[in-house]
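Sample entry (149 residues):
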Amino acid sequence: MGARGLWRDWSRQDLEDPEEFARMVEAIRAEALPETDTPPDLVHQTILWFVDGDEWLGRLAIRHHLTPPLLELGGHIGYVVRPSARRKGYATQMLTQSLPWAARLGIDTALVTCDNDNHPSRRVIESAGGELEDERHGKLRFWVPTHVV
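Predicted structure, serialized as tokens:
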């Protein structure tokens, strides 16, 4: 699966070209801008990469508002950690560090979801202050405050 940026997929092979990589970065940045037109089923989002030096550990997406499908299943914030970097606390850091970004976007409480059997992700969400609302379609739905007191 390629990287998603401004509704295009790039393969790893595509991104080996520095110019193509730069185009992808600009497309990702454009997705966050309110003036960028979006297809009706997509929303503006801010993509954050989590790195250690030049090593990519994961990425996080903050969706600026929720469509009915995102309210049901996807939520405001989604994250992924590279398999070789899992179980080292990076997901917790990513989610926690993203909350002030979400607050600056006007999101008071962020909806964050995970599969009902994904116990590590549930612990990450709960450690960030997530309160379980319910389960829908095999997904647990948590509301996480974005303003740290």
